[in-house]
User: Which sequence fits this backbone?
């Protein structure tokens, strides 16, 4: 934490994002308690990825339905042209 505080003084009014990819972690958990400091480690990144995966799966279902509808509409339109 002592290494981060001087950096915060220089960065006034700008948040600091720290990504700790080390195993074991290199950044002390108490660093997250500093104002405008956001620490992400592998566990938190995995949790974020899992949450967004669920959202993407839901959106994928909606997209597939939309594609099916437009493909059906196009097929109906094309069949009408072929009958003329």
Assistant:
């Amino acid at each position: 934490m002592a290494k981060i505080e001087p950096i915060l003084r220089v960065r006034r009014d700008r948040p600091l994002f720290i990504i700790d990819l080390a195993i074991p972690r290199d950044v002390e958990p108490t660093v997250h308690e500093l104002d405008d400091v956001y620490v992400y480690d592998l566990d938190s990144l995995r949790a974020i990825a899992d949450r967004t995966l669920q959202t993407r799966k839901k959106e994928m279902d909606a997209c597939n339905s939309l594609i099916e509808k437009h493909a059906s509409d196009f097929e109906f339109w094309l069949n009408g042209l072929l009958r003329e």
About this structure: The chain has two helices and two strands.
